[in-house]
Write a structure and sequence with these properties.
This protein is α/β, with parallel strands linked by helices and 293 residues long. Helices cover 38% and strands 16% of the residues. The radius of gyration is 18 Å and the shape is globular.
């Protein structure tokens, strides 16, 4: 059973209580998956999340400004990525490319065909940590991990080309990634992905400009100091990706999804229904399924 650290224990140092870089956000997200797994009405089950989050993940949620306030949003995001990925696999995707995979355990916890190829890409320290924690576990599909900094444009283009050549239909997932990129960096990544003939779908999460500003004023302040600033919230919404070869096929808001499962905070229900079209100044976050044109 998951439990928060005992307040009577010797406290961690101030340095250990803070975000040390963008990789630490993976521990934070794993913490929320662990909490959801504990619920009898959980929207998903991730029996590996508690181990992956570790003690630092617990402390981050309790010490970041509003760090433990938006559990409903993290859960809704995980749920929607699960749904979109499962749909893509049912529709014939034979390779999942998970960019900035973090501490995601989907290859272990989802119902997947054994023949499915699943490729995780992340920084070397994340890959090493995850491999150690899950060393005794067996994934349900053909899992491989690639250590790569996605800001290495030449390296990622070579990887994308190699993967496209060995699959008929690739679905790309980038959960929790794009918000840390500049507009130019997102455009470059979108272009690199769309040039691959067998890359068919791309699942992303997205924030409106209004939500981005709100996040920058709260939790984003401390994350920015650690080199993990929130940057991307395009006014065009999912239509931002159209010039780079991607069209929006399905868009689901996190608040609306949380409300459907009676998880949305009562004080936020007045924000529903979501506005039609691009949310712009409306505080919106969601998950989008993009399809290569």
């Amino acid at each position: 059973m998951l439990s928060l650290p005992d307040t009577e224990r010797q406290p961690m140092s101030e340095e250990n209580l803070t975000v040390r870089g963008v990789s630490d956000t993976a521990l934070w997200v794993a913490y929320f998956r662990a909490l959801e797994t504990q619920r009898p009405d959980g929207l998903f089950r991730d029996p590996y999340a508690e181990r992956l989050a570790g003690e630092h993940g617990f402390h981050l949620a309790k010490t970041l400004p509003d760090g433990n306030k938006h559990e409903w949003a993290w859960v809704a995001r995980t749920y929607l990525f699960d749904q979109f990925l499962a749909r893509a696999i049912r529709d014939g995707a034979d390779l999942v490319l998970n960019l900035a995979a973090g501490l995601d355990a989907r290859p272990y916890r989802m119902d997947l065909p054994a023949t499915l190829q699943w490729v995780e890409v992340d920084l070397p320290e994340i890959i090493s940590y995850k491999r150690e924690i899950l060393s005794d576990e067996k994934p349900k599909c053909r899992l491989e991990r690639v250590s790569l900094d996605l800001s290495d444009a030449a390296g990622r283009r070579q990887l994308f080309s190699d993967l496209s050549a060995r699959a008929d239909k690739v679905v790309v997932a980038s959960e929790g990634l794009l918000i840390y990129f500049t507009t130019e960096e997102v455009a470059s990544l979108a272009q690199d992905l769309s040039t691959q003939n067998h890359f068919q779908d791309w699942i992303i999460d997205l924030a409106s400009p209004g939500q981005l500003k709100l996040m920058q004023r709260t939790t984003g302040k401390q994350l920015s100091e650690a080199g993990a600033a929130f940057k991307f919230g395009p006014p065009e919404g999912a239509n931002f990706f159209a010039p780079y070869g991607w069209e929006s096929k399905d868009v689901r808001g996190l608040l609306k999804t949380a409300a459907e499962f009676k998880r949305a905070p009562a004080e936020l229900l007045s924000l529903l229904p979501e506005p039609k079209g691009n949310p712009r100044n409306y505080p919106w976050t969601g998950v989008c399924l993009l399809h290569r044109k």
